């Protein structure tokens, strides 16, 4: 064991691979369900796009969460993992017909609708099946989030959602459609948000919109505020579980639910990021004139976050206790962006050392690709090793 890792077991597996700590995932889920149970009408969905590994999904399903899907494939993965279809919500700016039909066939809880043309198609497809589709309108609340520009979604300039100024006309239009039932409003302002003030700003916006609806004597059953709670990438050991209490308390205090309304959340990163580690092996230490490179066998095909949005992941050498030295940790892919970290301290590294790239459970395995004809990384869960 080095720290939290069962080193002898990991040594036997072909690198690179993902290692998921089932115990930490369960603890995280227990924290979520405990905190949620303190608030009446709160309901948590897991955002499948963060990690769709079947073994991870199974543990999340056992904890009783619903799911938030953003594609037909994710609906299929969720149904296969045993999530009840009444607990599935489906969002996305570009739902294709087969995906909408799949949602209708499974009688999912709700389509989060992002435009009028989409609403019309859902109405037609539902009519063809003699069904009524439950929908929530995803409104763009024009609330900024203090996070990376590529993962903010709630600004007027982003492609997501319906302009909130169109809320009433859209509601009116939907009320004319025979195979549509409006059940809620949906929002999602971005990801890796650590400033509760951002969520407060969303609450204030939702309150304003609900007041406006009330003036027109409209009430929806459900409010869905999306996900976005961030994790501590700097300190995965010290802060393995995000502050769910603060998160849910913020909504309980600031968002004014009407009688009988339920409040839905769609958490992805905060559920799975810290339980996952990308384990990779050092291939070569290359001593340049300016820098020392630790070349590992994982690349951005396995974990794209650093290349895609300069994301930070804590990196550790699991095989060495020697004095730390500064390295650029890089992958084998033929792209200059295939860099996990620059000038970071690692215990002196040698060919064959196991390197742990931490906090990689969210948007890691699920974003893997086969560029360069590489193999997709396999995900292992601690209890199967
Ligand atoms: C990605 C996404 C989420 C989850 O975001 P996290 O930051 O991982 O919590 C929730 N809802 C929608 C609609 C999303 O697109």
Helix content: 25-40%
User: Which structural class matches the secondary elements?
Assistant: alpha/beta
Distance between the termini: 14 Å
Choose one word for the global shape.
Answer: elongated
Mean pLDDT: 95
Return the string of H and E elements. HEHEHEHEHEHEEHEHEHEHEEHEEEEE
Largest sheet: 8 strands, mixed
Rg measurement, Å? 22 Å
Number of strands: 17
Please summarize what this structure is.
Helix content is 29%, strand content 24%.
What key attributes describe this structure?
385 residues, alpha/beta, eight-stranded mixed beta sheet, eight-stranded parallel β-barrel, 11 helices, 17 strands, elongated, binds pyridoxal-5'-phosphate
Task: Outline the structure in words.
This protein has 385 residues and is of the alpha/beta class. The protein has helices spanning 7-11, 22-37, 54-62, 72-80, 97-105, 116-128, 167-175, 196-215, 244-254, 269-272, 305-309, and strands spanning 17-20, 42-47, 66-69, 88-90, 110-113, 133-140, 162-163, 180-186, 222-224, 262-267, 276-287, 292-296, 315-317, 324-330, 339-347, 354-357, 378-381. Strands 1, 11, 12, 13, 14, 15, 16 and 17 form an eight-stranded mixed beta sheet that branches. Strands 2-3-4-5-6-8-9-10 form an eight-stranded parallel β-barrel, surrounded by five helices. The radius of gyration is 22 Å and the shape is elongated. Residues 47, 49-50, 68, 70, 91, 188, 191, 226-229, 266-270 line the site of pyridoxal-5'-phosphate.
